[in-house]
Amino acid sequence: MITGATGYVGRALSAWFIDKGIPYRAASRYPIETKELFNDLNVESVRFDFEDSSTYQQTFEGVKTLFLIRPTVLRELQPMEDTLRAAKFFGVNRVVFLSVLASEKMSFLPHRKIEKLLIHLGFNYTILRASLFMQDLLKYQQTDIREHHVLNIPAGLGETSFIDSRDVAETAFLSLMGKHYSNEVYKMTGKQSLSMYHVAEILSDEIGCKIIYTNPTKHQFIKTYLHRGFSNEYTAQLANVYTSVKNGFSKRISLDTERTLQREPRYLKEFIRDHKEAFIE
Ligand SMILES: NC(=O)c1ccc[n+]([C@@H]2O[C@H](COP(=O)([O-])OP(=O)(O)OC[C@H]3O[C@@H](n4cnc5c(N)ncnc54)[C@H](OP(=O)(O)O)[C@@H]3O)[C@@H](O)[C@H]2O)c1
């Protein structure tokens, strides 16, 4: 069973199951759209909302293994706790959880609290602590890059070991299929730690157009995003992610991804090449 099936990792993870012909349940608040998205007989689409306990039974009944994400938009921890308790009640015993790099140093993070809860509730778990996704450049920066030729991220000189979410999804697939040891934590990073100045250089080289890193302050960034119509909550979470980059929390490089995939993780230039058209006006 996959939560966040329509997100970047969830979609790439679903593709693995579909490709291998393995039946699975895709959970989403919008099951009709999700069924259409995957359009495959092996996909059972179910309506699931962390914040609506009436959806728990149909989601978890008959499920033994769960891929768990924590949606960025979720304000409180309680729905995650309710969900995990329900999953346990309905017989889920293994959980692969998508967490964030260096969560062990950020006890205030909901992700860290969820990690502890998984252990406390006695699940057989695998925790994937991922660095910043390369896909975030598409999700949040595409318009700035395409139309204004700037990279507008308040990360100062901070470096990040960007990971392609397709590599996270592949690791999650292997974990769900029992290819990894239980009760393990993996650090999912790329092989380079890059400042946003470097990212702008790689973007410029790959798309053939000069991209400038504007290095805004957190305040300027928040103002811009609110002006664009993003919610207070979402903007604050995003600004906090970039502040953690600025403070060096996602600069660490680990060999875990290479070990679990038995190949090198994708480099940023490969990701940009694969999505070149999306970055060009
Ligand atoms: N982005 C990064 O760089 C990065 C790096 C490391 C870790 N992470 C972690 O990865 C997780 C996913 O992040 P993301 O940015 O890819 O996606 P996201 O925008 O946080 O979440 C997307 C998914 O969450 C589902 N969702 C949202 N609210 C829901 C609800 N109330 N009930 C059920 N499902 C709900 C959505 O499904 P529907 O809309 O179909 O319901 C969608 O599939 C987060 O915990 C994030 O911290 C992200």
TrEMBL record:
Residues 2-247 form the NmrA-like domain. InterPro entries: Ergot_Alk_Oxidoreductase, NAD(P)-bd_dom_sf, NmrA-like. Gene3D superfamilies: NAD(P)-binding Rossmann-like Domain, UDP-galactose 4-epimerase, domain 1. It comes from the Bacteria. This is NmrA family NAD(P)-binding protein. It comes from Halobacillus seohaensis. The lineage of its organism: Bacteria, Bacillati, Bacillota, Bacilli, Bacillales.
